[in-house]
Amino acid sequence: MTRLTAATLGALPASVGTPRYDRAAVRPGVVHLGVGGFHRAHQALYLDRLLEAGGSDGWGICGVGVLPGDRRMAEVMAAQDRLYTLVEKHPDGHRTARVVGSLVDYRLAPEDPDAVVEALAAAGTRIVTLTVTEGGYNASAATGEFDATAPAVLADLRPGAAPATVFGLVTEALVRRRARGLAPFAVASCDNVPGNGALARHSFAAFAGLRDDALGEWVAREVPFPSSMVDRITPVTTDADRADLARRFGVEDRWPVVCEPWTQWVLEDAFPAGRPALEDVGVQVVGDVVPYELLKLRLLNAGHQVLGHLGLLAGHTYVHEATGDPLLREFLVGYLEEEGTPTLPPVPGTDLAAYRAAVVTRFGNPHVGDTLARLVEYASDRLPQFLFPVLRANLAAGGEVRRSAAVVAAWVHALQRDPDGGPVDARRDRLRSAAHRSREDPLAPLADRELFGDLAGQPRFTAAYRAALDSLRAAGPRATVEALVRGPLG
What number is the average pLDDT over the span 249-278? Predict the structure, then answer.
């Protein structure tokens, strides 16, 4: 058994890939805010591949933990010299393992915010990437407006306050760069949010404008915010994953990352200060991300919501179990073909039928171990981003909505019946309160315009939603899904 550190790389088994480049010579050109499993399975791997190819030593990553809960990651990164093992789990049970070395620095903002600001403001930093979750942009899902009353935002705006939010850290760094005559870095969101570049621009400019009107206008005008589409199923690392890595590969890693083999990154080419040659390592660098973004959001991400809520109600724990359930699988395929796909624009170079088949295959990978509970966390952020646009598009076009409406009903039903409060969600208390009122008024949850916008005023949606909610309560999830795959309820 070999404990993972820089000094032990040469002692690892030959079956484990390791960096062949000189990490000591790599300088950070990217600062990433929100280092979690997905970033380490995705963006960090692409940059690791680029460093491995040679000639890109100025494109290492400085990772930043933004929240107090990131202290454990900081400790692991320090103990392992910012190295970690990435394990890909193939559908046939085969595993591949690689030690990723592109993270060459790590800072914890709650411990030393000024050090983070200085890392961002450094002349070598040309790109800032973000994985701060769908809700991390502090914007209303219904209106898109930045919440200027959020306590963390108000705290960052106090005179002399040390910045604690991503908005405060990035804005202060931009102010320092401008004072030093340095061009602004590009800020690239890597979160699963429609129009993530535009959303990031709006949120960061709004925060900067709260500091100073002219500063907000400058951020909106001068700072590049390229959009991106990112895709790789990356479940939470478990103790079983650590033990499996030790048993199969002889590596002791306190926080490895496990993921599926599939990976995709589509990135808008908008980096005036320069960027790494990511197209050389499989990134699709394009002029317009939107078609690829909608493809992923409305099929894969919305598909997760379609499967997650009803799969849990049907008694399943894992994504592959729900996908392997013939009834739920048929329901999922029906959503992908009849509700998700008709809302998509043409996607260059993409076979939609093959993409749909790949989604189902990926969901069915029994070795990834992704849980349905993970899929339904933060549903009040995810459903408005992934599924509600499909609903609205189909309502406007006269398309099919019964499966999407049933997913909303399943969410409400689960909130109403869960004695433990339901999955993690920033709006959980108010959601549960509305779900309990739905016993007397089924439309009570839909009155929350911040989440649902005008959907409560769409008779075709509310009729399908009420029929599904009534069926879930009277007949149960399996009978409801069985009826829905045959046609409309009622």
Answer: 97
